[in-house]
């Protein structure tokens, strides 16, 4: 029984064995591949190394190798390189999992405004084409409201002051909220125009009264679902007081508008 060395056909690691193990199946201690141990070479030269055969493949003839093949130089698989490869693979797998968690945390779908602590910031800009008409019979008249946002200067009188950069706003997000104007005397009213704070679907009614006691609904948009910053409504009514009642809003928005204009003619008969 004599010892000899053979080379792993996968990683090149040199493995020592004896002639009694020829033909058996061993596992490479470096790459863990199954190898068929070759027949012991005929030469006693310790530098002559036969290449082993992967398990299941046809083995190399040691006779032909001994006759004409040059000795395989002894080499060892770089263990440090193997460890580095394993660590790099582990790091890549961890990075993939981490990246997956980041993507999972990104919300999908639409974002809903839900700020009920104050009026939404950065109100939509007023359309530059909107101007206050000289025919507005509500301009500068006494006005009243369910509440006003005094802390931010969004007062009742801003709703018909002729300035489209100032606005009235309710003091909180509760609904309904109302704002009304006293035209001073009975008028024939033909239409109204509201320049809202936001470009969204406001739900509201417009009422008219002669004595501020009995009110008649002349515009009913309590089911409105069309977003817009300007609502113009045509109707025909007689009355001294005009009241806007906001009944519904997008969540997080407050009842608020820049200007409410009323059109028609003041009755001059006593």
Give the termini distance in whole angstroms.
137 Å
In the CATH classification, which architecture of the largest domain applies?
A: Sandwich
Percent of residues in helical segments? 10-25%
> Can you write the helix and strand succession as a string?
EEEEEEHHEEEEEEE
Q: What oligomeric state is this?
A: single chain
State the major sheet: 7 strands, antiparallel
Any idea what the shape is? rod-shaped
Unreliable residue runs: 62-72, 96-119
Total helical segments: 2
If you had to describe this structure to a student in words, what would you say it looks like?
There is one protein chain. With 270 residues, the chain is mainly beta. It folds into two domains: 98 residues, no CATH class; 124 residues, Galactose-binding domain-like (Jelly Rolls, Sandwich), CATH 2.60.120. The chain is built from two helices and 13 strands. The strands form three sheets. Strands 7, 8, 9, 10, 11, 12 and 13 form a seven-stranded antiparallel beta sheet that branches. A three-stranded mixed beta sheet has the order 2-1-5, with no helix packed on it. β10 and β11 form a beta hairpin. It is rod-shaped. It starts with a strand and ends with a strand. About 13% of the residues have low confidence.
């Amino acid at each position: 029984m004599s010892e000899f060395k053979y080379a792993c056909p996968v990683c090149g690691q040199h493995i020592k064995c004896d002639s009694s193990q020829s033909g058996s199946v061993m596992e490479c201690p470096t790459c863990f591949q199954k190898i068929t141990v070759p027949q012991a070479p005929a030469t006693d030269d310790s530098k002559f190394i036969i290449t082993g055969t992967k398990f299941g493949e046809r083995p190399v003839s040691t006779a032909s190798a001994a006759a004409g093949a040059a000795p395989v130089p002894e080499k060892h698989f770089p263990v440090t390189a193997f460890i580095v490869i394993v660590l790099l693979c582990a790091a890549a797998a961890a990075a993939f999992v981490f990246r997956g968690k980041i993507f999972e945390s990104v919300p999908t779908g639409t974002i809903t405004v839900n700020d009920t602590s104050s009026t939404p910031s950065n109100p939509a800009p007023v359309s530059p084409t909107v101007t206050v008409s000289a025919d507005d019979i509500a301009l500068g008249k006494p006005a009243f409201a369910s509440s006003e946002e005094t802390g931010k200067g969004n007062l009742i009188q801003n709703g018909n002051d002729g300035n489209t950069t100032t606005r009235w706003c309710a003091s909180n997000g509760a609904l309904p909220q109302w704002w009304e104007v006293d035209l001073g005397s009975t008028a024939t009213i033909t239409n109204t125009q509201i320049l809202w704070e936001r470009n969204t679907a406001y739900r509201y009614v417009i009422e008219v009264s002669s004595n501020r006691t009995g009110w008649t609904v002349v515009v009913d948009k309590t089911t409105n679902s069309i977003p817009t910053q300007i609502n113009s409504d045509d109707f025909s009514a007689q009355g001294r007081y005009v009241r806007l009642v906001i009944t519904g809003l997008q969540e997080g928005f407050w009842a608020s508008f820049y200007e409410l204009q009323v059109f028609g003619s003041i009755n001059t008969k006593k």
